[in-house]
């Protein structure tokens, strides 16, 4: 039995089985590279679902983390803490939103958005008590809390977890007319990913977000974008909505905001919306802690300083072109934006799980989503040479 097999067997005895990891035991990582317990080296083209967009152990992140850890790490929001203000100011500046509310995980920031939208629905729009509706898209992914899974269209996310939270309506993704038809006087918000990540990196038709924006404005409905995975440079712009030249009323960020070392998320919105979350209405012990604030601020600065969105755009276009040049009956579709690409496979020829296991064996980390799509989302700091190395492995699979 290899050390890897021994580890996996042992871990099966005491770890809850809510994940089915690929058969590798990682030990350390730096930049775009990771090493397992047997010393084998891998190119990371997963980036922990974009949480590691800056690469592993970015020197500036590690420096900010260590300095702040020695200074003041956690003090709760019972007090003001010096590092929080510059982080919040930076968040508001790059998003153009008025107010920011820091949380930890993406799901918590989505929950924050739901609460803020409902409050706005009652206190500003005048929706009768307990009647507020939020419209969401089919095949959405917004996290795993009980309320969030309540509006998932994926049965395995819900089975055995009822009763579910009411107040959500599901419409097809990418269909602006369906949104128009679904809105009622009780609709407070439309919550959507600009590009659906977990669904398989689904890019909506051109003009979709612009039409959504127009409909939301005309119907007095908040347009809330979940950019937890698509945001912070991943798609070739700082935020995916910039491709559509729209501005959302609420914006949810996470994953890469933690610089690849911790969970940092935020919900941002206009003063009209977020000023309604008055003292006592919402909170989080760890949300916006000094350590998270220092790391989050540094992450935002690095994305700007290293022009990671631009890198993502140019390398992503190159990557897409190279993938499209692969001729194989196993490949059904290639889609994405920037360094965020989904390769849809014909599962009768090559199931995506098998493909990700074969890529793993060849030294490339990726992960299937929904049996048929392979996702490629390398750290945005990847060089063209490193990307070419990854491409050579991908090409060898077909
Ligand atoms: C990952 C993800 C979330 C949930 O984030 P967690 O940190 O896992 O709670 C929410 N929305 C989107 C679009 C995501 O990709």
Short summary:
The chain contains 14 helices and 15 strands.
State the main characteristics.
single chain, 398 residues, alpha/beta, Aspartate Aminotransferase, domain 1, Aspartate Aminotransferase, domain 2, 2 domains, 7-stranded mixed β-sheet, 4-stranded mixed β-sheet, 14 helices, 15 strands, 38% helix, 17% strand, globular, binds pyridoxal-5'-phosphate
Indicate the topology:
Blueprint (H helix, E strand, L loop, with lengths): L2 H12 L11 E5 L2 E4 L4 E4 L2 H4 L8 H13 L12 H12 L3 E5 L2 H20 L7 E5 L8 H5 L4 H4 L9 E4 L4 H7 L4 E6 L15 H12 L2 E5 L23 E4 L11 E5 L1 H4 L15 H16 L2 H17 L6 E6 L4 E5 L6 H10 L2 E2 L1 E3 L3 E4 L7 H14 L1
Parallel strand pairs: 3-13, 5-6, 5-7, 7-8, 8-9
Antiparallel strand pairs: 1-2, 2-3, 4-10, 9-10, 11-12, 12-15, 14-15
The structure holds pyridoxal-5'-phosphate.
The site of pyridoxal-5'-phosphate (PLP) has 14 residues, from helix 5.
Taken in chain order, the helices and strands follow as HEEEHHHEHEHHEHEHEEEHHHEEHEEEH
Ligand types: pyridoxal-5'-phosphate
Low-confidence stretches: none
**Between the first and last Cα atoms, what is the distance in angstroms?**
30 Å
In order across it, which strands form the biggest sheet?
Answer: 4-10-9-8-7-5-6
Mean pLDDT: 97
Task: Please give the radius of gyration in angstroms.
Answer: 21 Å
Structural class: alpha/beta
CATH architecture verdict of the largest domain = 3-Layer(aba) Sandwich
* Discrete helix count: 14
Remind me, CATH topology of the largest domain? Aspartate Aminotransferase, domain 2
Helix content, binned percent: 25-40%
* The CATH H-level homologous superfamily of the largest domain: Type I PLP-dependent aspartate aminotransferase-like (Major domain)
Number of strands: 15
What's the CATH class label of the largest domain? Answer: Alpha Beta
Rough outline: globular
Percent of sequence in beta strands: 15-25%
**Main β-sheet: number of strands, strand sense, barrel status?**
7 strands, mixed
């Amino acid at each position: 039995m290899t050390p890897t097999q021994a580890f996996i067997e042992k871990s099966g005895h005491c770890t809850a089985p809510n994940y089915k990891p690929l058969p590798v035991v990682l030990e350390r990582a730096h930049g775009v590279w990771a090493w397992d317990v047997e010393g084998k080296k891998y190119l990371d083209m997963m980036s922990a679902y974009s949480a590691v967009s800056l690469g592993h152990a970015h020197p500036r992140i590690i420096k900010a983390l260590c300095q702040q850890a020695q200074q003041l790490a956690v003090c709760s929001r019972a007090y003001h803490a010096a590092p929080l203000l510059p982080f919040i100011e930076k968040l508001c500046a790059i998003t153009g939103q008025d107010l920011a509310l820091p949380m930890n995980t993406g799901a918590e920031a989505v929950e924050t958005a739901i609460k803020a939208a409902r409050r706005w629905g009652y206190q500003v729009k005048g929706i009768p008590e307990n009647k507020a509706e939020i419209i969401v898209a089919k095949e959405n992914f917004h996290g795993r809390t009980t309320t969030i899974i309540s509006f998932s269209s994926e049965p395995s996310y819900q089975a055995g977890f009822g009763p579910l939270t009411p107040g959500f309506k599901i419409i097809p993704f990418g269909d602006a007319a369906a949104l128009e038809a679904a809105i009622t006087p009780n609709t407070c918000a439309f919550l959507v990913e600009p590009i659906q990540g977990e669904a398989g990196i689904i890019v909506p038709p051109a003009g979709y977000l612009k039409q959504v924006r127009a409909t939301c404005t005309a119907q007095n409905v908040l347009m809330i974008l979940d950019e937890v995975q698509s945001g912070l440079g991943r798609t070739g712009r700082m935020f995916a909505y910039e491709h559509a030249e729209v501005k959302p009323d609420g914006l949810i960020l996470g994953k890469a905001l933690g610089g690849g070392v911790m969970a940092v998320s935020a919900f941002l919105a206009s003063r009209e919306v977020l000023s309604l979350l008055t003292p006592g209405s919402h909170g989080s012990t760890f949300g916006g802690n000094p350590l998270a604030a220092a790391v989050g601020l540094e992450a935002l600065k690095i994305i700007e300083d290293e022009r990671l969105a631009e890198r993502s755009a140019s390398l992503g276009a190159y990557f897409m072109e190279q993938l499209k040049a692969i001729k194989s009956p196993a490949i059904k579709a290639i889609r994405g934006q920037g360094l965020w690409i989904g390769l849809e496979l014909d599962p009768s020829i090559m199931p995506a799980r098998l493909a990700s296991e074969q890529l793993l064996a060849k030294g490339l980390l990726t992960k299937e989503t929904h049996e048929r799509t392979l996702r490629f989302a390398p750290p945005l700091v990847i060089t063209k040479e490193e990307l070419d190395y990854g491409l050579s492995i991908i090409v060898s699979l077909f």
